[in-house]
Amino acid sequence: MPQVRDILDTMDYGTSPEASDVARAWLAAHGDGFGHFIEGAFTPPGDDTFDVSNPATGETLARVAQGSAADVDAAVAAAARAFPGWSATPGHVRARHLYALARLVQKRERFLAVLETLDNGKPIREARDIDVPLVARHFYHHAGWAELIETEFPGQVPVGVCGQIIPWNFPLLMLAWKIAPALAAGNTVVLKPAEFTPLTALAFAEICREAGLPPGVVNIVCGDGSTGAALVRHPCVAKVAFTGSTEVGRQIREATAGSGKKLSLELGGKSPFVVFADADLDAAVEGVVDAIWFNGGQVCCAGSRILVQEGVAERFYAKLRRRMATLRTGDPLDKSTDVGAIVAPVQLDRIRSLVAAGEAEGGTLFQADTDLPATGCFFPPSLFTDVEPASTVAEVEIFGPVAVAMTFRTLDEAVALGNNTRYGLAASIWSENIDLALDVAARVKAGVVWINATNVFDAAAGFGGFKESGFGREGGREGLEEYLTHPVREVKRASLTGRANGLSALPAGAPAASVALPTIDRTAKLFIGGKQVRPDGGHSTTVFGPRGAPLGQAALGNRKDIRNAVEAAEKAASWGATTGHSRAQVLYYVAENLSARASEFQDRLSLMTGASAEEAALEVEISVRRTFFYAAWADKYDGRVHATRARHVTLAMNESFGVMGLVCPDEAPLLALVSLLMPVLAMGNRAVLVPSPTHPLAATDLYQVLETSDVPPGVVNIVTGERDALAKTLAEHDGVAALWYAGPPDGIAAVERASAGNLKPTWASAHPPRDWFHAREAQGREYLRRATQVKNVWVPYGE
Amino acid sequence: MDDHTASARASLGPERIASAAHPRNLGTPLHPEWFEGVGINLSAAERRAATLGARRSVKKDHQAAWLVKALTCIDLTTLAGDDTPGRVHRLCAKARRPLREDLVAALGLEDRPPTVGAVCVYPTMVRPAVAALRGSGIPVASVATGFPAGLTPLSQRLAEIRYAVDEGAEEIDIVITRAHALLGEWSALYDEVAAMRETCGGAHLKAILGTGDLRTLRNVYKASMVAMQAGADFIKTSTGKEEVNATLPVSLTMVRALRDYCEHTGHRVGFKPAGGLKTAKDALNWLVLMKEELGRPWLEPDLFRIGASSLLADIERQIEHWATGRYSSASHHAMA
Q1: Does some domain include residue A585?
Q2: Omega before A761 within 30 of 0, i.e. cis
Q3: Considering B75, B173, B233, B314, which one is annotated as catalytic?
Q4: Same domain, A362 and A261
Q5: Contact status, residue A132 vs residue A77, Cβ threshold 8 Å
Q6: Which residue out of A3, A6, A10, A11 would a mutagenesis test of the B interface target, given it has the greatest number of B Cβ atoms within 10 Å?
Q7: Which of A392, A755, A774, B190 is deepest in the core (most CB within 10 A)?
Q8: Is B291 a catalytic residue?
Q9: Considering the domain boundaries, does residue A506 fall inside one?
Q10: Considering the entire predicted model, what is its pTM?
Q11: Are A129 and B54 in contact (CB < 8 Å)?
């Protein structure tokens, strides 16, 4: 033991371990093992269990039941039984329950923080000062939403039983992010914590009991991936919320395809951390510390790709390396520890092998010269320089305390490098020039952007990704939308069958009506990049009227036509950059020209669908109105400023996706198309549109309207042909950012499965088919919401 | 920047600024390019400052040692209109024996009982202070240059420095003309501080920036850099008379300026937060700031001072608690 006089010389910090006696007493009391928490009670642990260990020491902390399909079934059944009562509980009463949970979390704050650190290996400072306070904050915030939901979300209802699967990096915080909004909105849940870190969820289960939450509202089933898979596939689960790896997110997308389950995915990232020459470099260095060494870099939104303006790069690296020397890696329970343990040996192995790959590829590795504990899962803070975008370590999410650094020359290059990733979760931008910083914030493809800050969270702001970082938001008003739905109209299932398969490229057998003066043949082509083009395959199919009379031919587009259409749409990016006012002008002009040709469209509809003159006239009239409606919205679908932290502007901006695929139904061939297309255009997206295969001619007539209405080339592209083949190509296309599909159920399943490639959000509903003539179902904010993604930009201010 | 333990071992007593380990700051010509484009982000500085104390915890024997270290860095101060030679005498007695003997024994420091870093008084109180401290090795610091506003004519301010030095002050805490900083007249500020430094002669110059008046961290950084270029041995936050005195974000900005200056020139400059440090916990936070941002050398009184009057009493109470396990009362410790 050093004496005071020795310490006066060394001025070491010494050790400062947080007491773990309370958490250990709790673990000892559960020495027989933990069962699942179902319907307000714990099941016996049973024989099939797994060990949960402390990654800092390797010691076994607890034995936990491995959830079987039967366990999942029991939990889902309990949640389903609780749902009618809980969803009918007045918002104020639900608010009281959530408030009680928030209070109890606060009253058990130290126990929960220590338990989290034991289980996960994160530094006690983080568990104590970040995780647990944010957990309480999340329940408080959503207690408020429970109170307000009836008035703030009129006409919306809870989804039902939610299956929620959370990761091991923020076990209790992710639980709060999942459970609080679900309960506020009136859903019941079955939550599966990560296999490595189930303990705080089990402690939370006890808190639910202590708070008097009705049995079955929250159920917790532990287990590995197979337990999660059973939950995802369970037919009574109406909503799946997942946070975890992109790989598993893809599997979940595929597993739920066609099931009608609502889905939100919060997945991986390789987020850029962009340092401009005019940044406060010392502040940015601390930013890196909080970006990549927070929670040992095991953070989905970690700023793991440092991009530094070339002129200051060496100076910045020098500052960073010096800062790394003062990072303390070791005992997570020590209050002076900066970097704790890696969650498990398998994760440590992954980090090691990726770092080895980085070195093998020529990267220069710098590691802080720190003593690591002799045992346990530890990895030193690491920085790679001399890496390029093509390097493995620059591309792959390492999920460890390893940053890679690259340089850029100009703002444009910074944006290009920042977006040069399949992910789009977060970005951190450092500059003292607000013009520059906001410019980058607007152009970076990420759901969360921090200016001169990083890893700042608050329950009032939405969190979630673009691109392959997933879809859906957690937190704020936008997060609540994930747990609400519109009531379903009961209709007969019979009306759902598709009737659009097997378009023939052969000449039609039936002769055209013989008349004295033949009409001039009209050739409906594809409309791509503002031009009428012949289909790549060189085939056309005959379009028949309701009684089998041939009406004309439509082009049979194929996958190459889709490719060309997407390329044309990608080039038309200026549509999204222009003002809402300008887009409104174009939409008004479309309405004007459509109206001018109303009788022509009316005749066409009658011939194609057999609609009466009145019905057809109404379809055209409503199409005009609907176009007006979205022209009106084009400059009014405002974002929000969330009330998060003091002296922060947290902007929730509604951004267009870019290129969207739209697949139209057979019913109301003009009106349905207009209903899908116009909100998408109003919000600044470009569309690749597949019209009804049986009634394509209203769509091909429409391109003449588009041509005369100043719609810029490439903004709308129309590819006629086999709907489901074209839809699949669109769904698989990595350049298509979102897809709406209105068609038969088997088509929905195929599209959703195919969308797993780049994890584009899809919006498909077959049951019931929308009544396109009714504004309540076929237009409104929901369409705008689905045509945009929310980007939260955090702008702290103060001089 | 981290091997300072040799000089630290030499003595626990007062240590003259600019020891053999690091010679006095010679200053440089005015280099506006070192500070003109600087960006200091307030929110980021606040975040860093807010978590500094939470990221490091010093407990038990280590805490006792760190509090002793803080004590040895205190400029025990009286700067009041009613100061008298008798009041100064009492303060100096406390400076010589800041801790009760039983506490010194409990700390195991009988052979090198700690004293404070300096005693800081007005110029007319220098003479009684020097007399009271004779033989202790504790230097007397004098504020000067029209403290606290600093708006008397330059000739009088320089004359005041000469007076204090002649009276025996070894350190002069000057105040800058805040107007120069607020108006961006950096060469005027440079000339003023350089003239004061020259007037100080062998006495060491501590430049009070009046950070509460400067308002922005950018101003703080720039004024820090100009003062160092003009030859300041220490940069000091505040007079203690401003609305807001030493804060952690301001201190963070100043020590980063100091680090940058050291990188430019190789000269080590000291840092003195003043006003607002009242508790033992405050003292630990500032020591953590110095260790984390600058390193071990800046944890000694030749490079770190705390301008305080009431801080010492809280440190005494905390050390007694460490020694006895009982919470202490102020009446059990001699008044400063």
Answers
A1: yes
A2: no
A3: B173
A4: no
A5: no
A6: A11
A7: A755
A8: no
A9: no
A10: 0.95
A11: yes
Angle at CA B141, nearest 5°, toward B137 and B147?
175
Number of domains, chain A: 3
> What is the ipTM metric for this complex?
0.94
Contact between B220 and B247 under an 8 Å Cβ cutoff? The reply is: no
In this structure, are A673 and A752 located in the same domain? Answer: yes
Min distance B289 CA to chain A CA atoms (Å): 12
Nearest-by-Cβ selection for A12 from B39, B62, B216: B62
Same domain, A63 and A100: yes
Q: Which of B39, B58, B68 sits opposite A14 (nearest CB)?
A: B58
Q: Which residues of A touch B61 (CB under 8 A)?
A: 1-4, 7, 14
Q: Decide if A369 touches B, using CB distance below 8 A.
A: no
For A590-611, the pLDDT digits (tens) are 999 999 999 999 999 999 999 9
CATH of the domain at A606: 3.40.605.10
User: Structural domain tally of chain B?
Assistant: 1
Phi, psi of A229 (to 5 degrees): -65, -40
Cβ-proximal residues to A405 (8 Å cutoff; 6+ apart), any chain: A306, A307, A308, A313, A317, A320, A383, A384, A385, A387
Measured distance CA(A787)–CA(A657) in Å, rounded? 7
Please tell me the distance in Å from A293's CA to the nearest CA on chain B: 13
B236 in any annotated domain: yes
Are residues A280 and A254 part of one domain? no
Catalytic: which of B206, B236, B302, B314? B236
Cα separations in angstroms, A633 against A233, A586, A626, B82: 38, 13, 11, 72
On whether residue A11 sits in a domain, the answer given is: no
Do residues A185 and A127 both lie within one domain?
yes
Give A432's contacts in chain B (Cβ within 8 Å): 39, 41
Mean pLDDT, consecutive 10-residue segments, chain B of 336 residues? 39 49 91 95 97 96 98 97 97 97 98 97 98 97 97 98 98 98 98 98 97 97 98 97 95 98 97 96 98 97 96 97 95 91
Asked whether residue A305 falls in the same domain as residue A430, the answer is yes
Domain that holds residue B60: 38-332
Residue A510 pLDDT: 65
Shared-domain flag, residues A25 and A80? yes
User: Does A798 contact B at CB distance below 8 Å?
Assistant: yes
Q: How far apart are CA B155 and CA A200, in angstroms?
A: 69
The answer to whether residue B107 is domain-embedded is yes
Among the residues of chain B, which ranges form H helices? 5-10, 42-55, 60-72, 85-96, 101-106, 126-133, 154-167, 178-182, 186-200, 211-214, 217-229, 248-265, 280-293, 311-324
List the CATH number of the domain containing B53: 3.20.20.70
Contact by Cβ (8 Å): A11, B69: yes
Q: Is B195 on the interface with A (CB under 8 A)?
A: no
CA distance A658 to A637: 17
Q: How far is A340 from A55, CA to CA, in rounded Å? A: 9
**Shortest Cα–Cα distance, A7 to chain B (Å):** 6
Expressed as residue numbers, the domain containing A331 is 272-468
With CA atoms as reference, report the closest residue to A276 among A246, A313, A250. A313
User: Both A348 and A446 in a single domain?
Assistant: yes
Q: Which one of B38, B48, B107 has the shortest CB-CB distance to A4? A: B107
CB B224 within 8 A of CB B191: no
Q: Give residue-wise pLDDT tens across range A167-224.
A: 999 999 999 999 999 999 999 999 999 999 999 999 999 999 999 999 999 999 999 9
Q: Tell me which residues of chain A have a pLDDT lower than 70.
A: 489-501, 510-516, 766-768
Inter-chain touch A16–B69, beta carbons under 8 Å: no
Active-site residue B236, yes or no? yes
Pairing of strands A364-367, A382-385: antiparallel
How many CA atoms, within 13 angstroms, populate the side-chain half-sphere of residue A760? 31
Helix segments in A361-466, DSSP class H: 392-395, 411-418, 434-443
